[in-house]
Amino acid sequence: MEQCIFCNYSNNKNEKVLYENDLCVRPNNRYARSGRASGIVLRDDKIMFMQQIVSGKLRHVFVGGGIEENETPEQAVLRELKEEANVDGRIIYGSVYRPSKELNHEYFFLLSIDDDQMPKLGYDPEIPKGEEQVLKGVVWRDIDKEHEKFTAVDKDIISILTTHAKEKNIQADWLNSLSKVLSCSFKENIKKYYDTEAELRNSKSVKVDWKIQVRGKFCELIKRENKKTLLELGAGAGYDSQFFMENGLKVVAVDLSSEMVKNCKEKGIETYEMDFYDLSALDKQFDSIYAINTLLHVPKNDLCHVLNEINLVLEIDGLFYMGLYGGQDTENEFVKSEVSDVPRFFAMHSESYLKATLKNYFEILDFETIEIGADRNDIFHSITMRKR
Fold first, then answer.
1. Phi, psi of 72 (to 5 degrees)
2. pTM of the entire predicted model
3. What is the DSSP letter of 23?
4. What b-and-e string marks burial along 219-241, b requiring 16 or more CB atoms within 10 Å of the CB?
5. CB atoms within 10 A of CB 363
6. How far apart are CA 22 and CA 38, in angstroms?
7. Residue 57 near residue 63 (C-beta atoms within 8 A)
8. 364, 321 in Cβ contact below 8 A?
9. Which of 20, 116, 140, 368 shows its CA 20 to 30 Å from the CA of 312?
């Protein structure tokens, strides 16, 4: 067993202990700190929320509350679950977060409850007797069907918990379930942003020289090998797809933005509004696939799934071009305020990470790193591959 993720307490020099009867074994609670403990209750890809009325408005929050004197964070979150939802729980995982030195710690837990327990409305003991309770109900939200109802605060807490688990190389079904909340969120933002920018991108048909060069180089290889069909991933305004069509290829394009799809169709391109996660739904096979600066919107945790989907729709001996900005291994959201206040997710990859990952799916024919301008720190990975 692991030692406590909060205080690193271990009661045995040879065996690290995390929990004993679901509680940290810290002697006399001497490591307890002030702060707040919150719990995410997960069951069958559904997450439990407490309904509250605050200032006349209905809101949905995870169970949780302040940590009492001489109480551990673990004890606090299980107590809050019992008070608010009338059920006993078990701690599956936890992480700690401190916004700043001036603020108290916040502890976030993943909780499980037995199938024979049905949560029902409890109470908030901090509300004086005779006053109306803030708590109003218990609801479950389906991660797949109701992901749009998760607030930014909900996603922040889930992100802190899942990031902590990934850093510790945790492999678990619950991690995949919670990650879907964040995955759905970033897709919505990508769609909203590019819907907004579609008109601007459609007005700019001229590409910078290095983009023209990598596109032309891939097109020459396609012609030498007598390939006939091409799928473009994230076609945007459709100018690359149009270029390949003009060079004799039968082109199909996909994009998540409905406005971008509209621009592509106006250029006579067979285009579908979809992401990269279910390409096999196209029910088509292609001699070649082209993706430039689009797969950088795929989280690292999802990249292998997307690469497998690409592999499924690429013919044997088919060619795959993948171009994307890179450098160091990072994941961040950025806002281009002159276009939209909607953040876009970006995953940047190092050369070593990409080579180690891509070789599991394709034969790497050429891997070129291009420095982009003297005034920019960015580099561009230009990668040509073949399906074995």
1. -80, 160
2. 0.62
3. B
4. bebbeeeebebbbbbbbbbbbbb
5. 13
6. 15
7. no
8. no
9. 368
